[in-house]
Every structure is written in C-alpha cells, then in structure tokens.
Amino acid sequence: MNMRIEDRHRQIVEQVRGAGRVLVVELAERFDVAPETIRRDLTALDRSGSLRKVHGGAIPAPALPETGVAQREQVNPSAKQAIACATLERLALEPGTTLLVDAGTTTGAAARLLPADRGLTIITNSVLTAASLAAAGHTRVRILGGQLRGLTQAAVGPEALETLSTLRVDVALLGANGVSAAHGMSTPDPDEATVKRAMVRSARQVVALVDSTKIGQEHLVSFASLDDVDLLVTDVELPPALTEHLATTETEVLVA
C-alpha cells in the first residue's frame, strides 16, 4: 500500500481511538508494511502525545484530568450547542415526556433548550441545570438528593441512587468524559459513574451527548457499554473502528 507517512499516522490514531487498543501485527497487515515500520510509527506518535505505545501495540493517550464546570463551559461551546440542538430536533419530545438529565455542560446545554410549555417532567442530579430550568419557567423539575460533588455540581450517593431505583422515565440525556469501543462510556469519578449507571437502568431510551474531545478517551470507570446507548449525538464523524463497533450495537449515531 503506497501511503504517505502522515496519512498512515492519522489512520493509526483514528483506529486506536475507535478500538481502544491496536496490535502491531494487525496494523502491519492493514497497511501492508513491516512490523518494524509500525513500531517506529507508534514511537513517533507516542512522543507527540497522540497515543500511548505499549508492549505489542498501542492504546489511547492518557485522558486529561477532570476539570470543573466553569472550565468545561469554555471548551467547544459551539459544538456543545450544536449537539444540544440536534438532539432535541431528533427526539421531537411529546407533551408530558419524562426525562432524566445528567450533570454536564453538553446535557446542560440541551436542558436549556427544553420547551417550558409541554408539561415535561425533568429530573436531574445537577444543581445548575435544576436552577436554569426553574428560572426558564419549567414547573415540573425534580432534583435528586444526595452529596453534592463540588467539581461538577452533581448530586451523588445513596439518596440519589435510591430515588433513581424507583423511576422509569422516557428519555435519559447522558454525558461522558470518554467514549470508546473497548471501555464504553466512562468518567473519572466512581460516585458519578454509579449515578449515571442508575440513570441508564431507569430510562426507556438512552441518549449520549458527547463532543469530539470525548471520542477515543477512556477514564477510570465505565458506566455503560455502547450496547446500552440508543442514540449517540456528537459533532464529528467517528473513527472507522468506533463506527464499525456501533453498527454491531445498533446504536444510532447523529452528527450535529
């Protein structure tokens, strides 16, 4: 295969982000080059921070440390707004729909677009989202109780989980810090992961809202496999390996 090094590097990174892990022998066969060539490619990509070289192959680059709400609001704001708009247009919520809205900046953007005149019942673990919904005139807003996690302004813990165990809602709007084929949807904090997992169990339809910075990332705790996700909304075309995996899970993908 006659391919420029830059193109091969780009495709290798895409495959790592989509699959979660790649092997030297597989890459050598795919690109029709010697394993030594692939090892040199992986070394160069590791040095640039594009991936992490490991024995026999490569994995995605280490995820960035978790940041607070104020900082995350500044990352990809236009993409998050586009994702929020595309999500609500696709869902076309009927009057009286019940929703769970996860804490997060992209889910928060979607919440701010929810119409206040359709009798929606909205349950959230986000103090910020609950306040913005109430200020916008929504009258059926419930906030989950529990311990408030300062970094994300999200309620976590036994009280939140107990309430979620009693609920059955139409739609859950979920965020994630990372999405990959191997690790599913993930987040750094075990307590938030437990709440997110409970939201997945409580919903008839699970919608994941993730911008491009989350694709290919893997954080400490996986709270859902991609089999659990009915609709994934993002702002970029997904890497081929992740697209192929999602085809096996029958997850609908919407690019805003």
Automatic annotation (TrEMBL):
Function: Repressor of the lactose catabolism operon. Galactose-6-phosphate is the inducer.
InterPro entries recorded: Carb_Metab_HTH_regulators (IPR050313), DeoR-like_C (IPR014036), DeoR_HTH (IPR001034), NagB/RpiA_transferase-like (IPR037171), Tscrpt_reg_HTH_DeoR_CS (IPR018356), WH_DNA-bd_sf (IPR036390)
Entry keyword Aminoacyl-tRNA synthetase: no
Keywords: DNA-binding, Repressor, Transcription, Transcription regulation
SMART domains: DeoRC, HTH_DEOR
One Pfam family cited in the UniProt record for this chain: DeoRC
Name of the protein described by the UniProt record: Lactose phosphotransferase system repressor
MF terms (GO), sorted A to Z: DNA binding; DNA-binding transcription factor activity
Matching PROSITE patterns: HTH_DEOR_1, HTH_DEOR_2
Signal peptide, first to last residue: none
